[in-house]
Amino acid sequence: MMREGLLWYDDDPKCDLAAKVGRAAKRYTQKFGTSPNVCYVHPSAISASSPARDVDGVRVDSLVTVLRNHLWVGHEQVRRLAA
Asked: pTM of the entire structure?
């Protein structure tokens, strides 16, 4: 679960999803001092023309509650199952 994140708006039609995620991740790192590992986007942002699912270690996934042209980038804790 992501506890803290950065909501990034990017409607530049000249940039693909990977470039937008890269810009949002760079700003997140500047602001929080650590790299993000997840980015949620509106489902329409992930299509056959821009199938980015991982951008430089940032997992990209869709979430219907994220508005179009917005990216919600942050650090998600990895849950470990008890043995």
From this structure: 0.86
